[in-house]
């Protein structure tokens, strides 16, 4: 009799990209329906078979499931919820011998990240805004800059090494000692930001994001001036990371 050894929750939706107030509640609901409730529905459907085999549940989320980034509201909310669900599932299914693993990819060069797809996501929400709201962000000139720089970040900065994702799937399914989390892609290093205080983390994330999008100009100027003039802040952040490394507190737990 054949048994189900592993369930892989792979389907996902990344349909829009833009600020929270550009997005509707329906768009939040759509992302949650696919990225979170879809995982729950499929897992519930196959749970009896997984219990019979003491099998595995492998779910792909994102680094956005642990680190919130501007412009990714509906997607990030759904991925945070999915991570929470799998964390609960891992604890509840442990007595049944079922292992739950999460794959957290960063940016990879797939159709999800190509320039046409990113431009369509931005245009979809931007074109619904009234003129007053568009003017708050800088009008069409800002939108064009936002599209260009976002496309460069997501597509040109994405990793072409898709084999690492496939290898992680294979390891999670077949290994005698599978991990609980697989962090994939060079930009998974962003997760180190979770180790620093929120005020510093937001400062770094927002400065990085605004340098990409070109908005708001005043904040970019003031932030760059602060960084250039405040060497003490730089040294403080660097010293903090060095101390963490020496204490081995930045070691990724892949047990």
TrEMBL record:
GO biological process, any: steroid metabolic process
Q: Name one GO molecular function term.
A: oxidoreductase activity
Report which superkingdom the organism of origin falls in.
Answer: Eukaryota
Q: Residue span of the signal peptide, if any?
A: none
Keywords attached to this Swiss-Prot or TrEMBL record, sorted alphabetically, are: Oxidoreductase
Kindly provide the name given to this protein in its UniProt entry: Oxidoreductase, short chain dehydrogenase/reductase family protein
Q: Could you tell me which species this protein originates from?
A: Onchocerca flexuosa
